[in-house]
Amino acid sequence: MKLNNRLFVIGAAVILLCLVGGCKKRTPVAAPPSSQQQLAAPTITLSAQPSIIAEGASTTLNWTTTNATGVTIETVGQFPPQGSTVVSPRASTTYVAVAKGAGGTVSAQARVTVTPAPVTTTTTTVTPRVDETDQGFNVEQIFKNEIQDIFFDFDRAELTAEYRDILRQNAEVLIRRLPQISIMIEGHCDERGTEEYNIGLGDKRANAARDYLVSLGVSATRIKTISYGEERPFDPAHNEEAWAKNRRAHFILIKP
Amino acid sequence: MKRFRLLPLLALGCMIFSQAQTDDASIVIKPRPAKTTVLALPEFQTKSGNLDPAVDEYLKIVNETLWSDLEYSAFFKLLSRSFYPAQQIDEPEDLVFKDWQDQNLGVDFIIIGNARIESNYLVVQCRVFDLKTQEQVLGKQFRTIPRYTRAIAHRIADHIVSLLSANASQGIASTQIVFERKTRTGKEIYLADYDGANLQPITSNGSINVTPAWNPSNEWIAFTSYYESTPRLYLVSLSNGQLQAFPPSGGLLTTPAYSPDGKQLAFSARLNDASDTDIYIADTDGGNLRNITQHPGIDISPCWSPTGRQLAFVSSRGGVPQIHICDTFGADLTCITLESGYASSPDWSPDGRYIVFSWKPSRMAYFDLFIAEVATKRILQLTQGHGDNENPSWAPDGRHIVFQSNRSGSSEIYTIFADGSELRQITNLQGCSNPDWSSYAQKN
């Protein structure tokens, strides 16, 4: 309660002083400006900080004026005599600010240069999409001409570098040129291993080819595998030349 | 690390290998009796009073077949007929014991018999006498249609083996062998008597039919067929020809093997998108399917131990195909071969002691048959120097083995005594493989 009383007394004194002052200002009136010619023309300065930005980035326009009542920046908006605003031009832009005052109007310019966004490692270059379809060939011909069998070392089901390249080419054809077909991969062996084990080995060869094609983006649902072991040799002779031909994964077209 | 491990293994391999070649006595498979029983087998005669001359033809078959069966059983020595007294023996009354009791002949038992045709049936009587005691130890009469003449001889041989081997064998003369035969379009499953006679097709679908396997009661054969394109298992009844598709399918199913109780199949399968084959066991109706091996690598060609508690199979998990053993849950896995060369096609002996397999040791050019003693992992070589010898299967007596060999130029089926003697070629059909020997024949 005591504190409130004291504040009240101080407040009243301040108000009283103001009133006294106000009265004082009114009494000796200086001569007012008598004509418009004598009014000072406005001035304005405009700057952009920074003045060079990357594509997608922002910059701040700052302006100061004298003798102005307001500022209009074209394409941006209307502003008070002093101030700043943030802009994000898509391309290089020259901003024009017009200051208006009792003494007239005046304009100033600021150039903001927009540089293209830098190419970073995360952005990919987009190759133009061009749809290409074969004309005058049927699916069987493309398959026959483009899809190649792959071959294996004795008792092995691993893909060598040479045949991984072939499989990459096969995958490319299956994805780009023959996207509608399904395939059967047959696993074959030469006659030197034992018959039952070769059924397992042929199976592993076919699956190795399948798994690699799938890793390259060929849908697993498009691929069936079958092992013929040593039951369906391509060359029935009993020599290394024939055996090498018979250790293969053979590609068969399943029509859509 | 691995290189250092290999050296002692290779050294061990060479040692056992050379030992196997030079010291066959180190493992003796069901030895022949120390003193071989000597049999006299005079030709069976036409029974007096027979009116049908066709009996001569059947008698010839009985005499040839019975001699061959008894000789091949490897329990007996058959005294050559050139030593026999001149008198023909038709009935027991014709047998003069003192003629056969000559010490120089050394005959222990004599087998006599006769045959007649009665109402279009062939009737054969057979008696066996112990020459020491002059007592009849076997007396049987057999009656059948003439088409089954050989079956009578086989039946007589089995009775004699069973009686005189002190039950070491029930006789394998009535057993059969199932195998693959190459055709113009693929392969078909065929069946023959253990001596190659009575060849008959089990399949004839023009596709690829492989890996036949008997069930223990000889009533069913399981096999792999490509008939529906994707290889899967089928079970065919030999009594009525009924064909059942084994339900699990998709991917690859092959190399079936019946459990000793006949209730389950072990087989190799790659189901759907797996990358290689594993061993599975299921009931014969496909129920209770379970995966025994999950290891990366090819697991194939399982066979059961006679107790039904273990499996032997081929696995490439060590890099090259080798014979592994595990229990029926896949545990207690061991490799019984030497981790060198290429070992395949195991079959467990009926007494559980041995596993026969085909092996191409690293420095050899061909597959040969070897026998591993399961407990010691000692290895004995059975065949040598005659092309590829593959896919062995034990006879139910544990004394004989059937296998395929290309020693003659084409792949054919052979049988051999388990010490490497008594080789017999039982097919000559230009392309037979993967035989499986039946169980002992059921006596009706």
Structure in words:
The complex is a heterodimer of chains A (256) and B (444). Chain A is rod-shaped, with a radius of gyration of 43 Å. Chain A has helices at residues 2-26, 139-146, 161-177, 195-215, 240-246; strands spanning 43-49, 52-54, 59-66, 70-73, 77-79, 83-87, 93-101, 104-115, 150-151, 182-188, 223-229, 248-254. Chain A has 256 residues and is of the alpha+beta class. Chain B has 2 domains: 37-164, TolB, N-terminal domain (Rossmann fold, 3-Layer(aba) Sandwich); 175-437, Neuraminidase. Chain B is built from 4 helices and 30 strands. In chain B, a hairpin with a 6-residue loop joins strand 28 (412-417) and strand 29 (424-425). In chain B, helix 2 (55-73) runs parallel beside helix 4. In chain B, 45% of the residues are buried. The interface between A and B is medium-sized, with 22 and 37 residues.
Low-confidence stretches of chain A: 11-36
Rg from Cα of chain A: 43 Å
The fourth-level CATH homologous superfamily of the largest domain in chain A is: OmpA-like domain
Helix content of chain A: 25-40%
CATH structural fold name of the largest domain in chain A:
60s Ribosomal Protein L30, Chain: A
Counting DSSP E segments of at least 2 residues, the number of strands of chain A comes to 12
Number of strands of chain B: 30
**Largest sheet features of chain B:** 6 strands, mixed
**CATH architecture label of the largest domain in chain B:** 6 Propeller
Structural class of chain A: alpha+beta
Instruction: Provide the domain count of chain B.
Output: 2
Q: Note the overall shape of chain A.
A: rod-shaped
Number of DSSP helical runs of chain A: 5
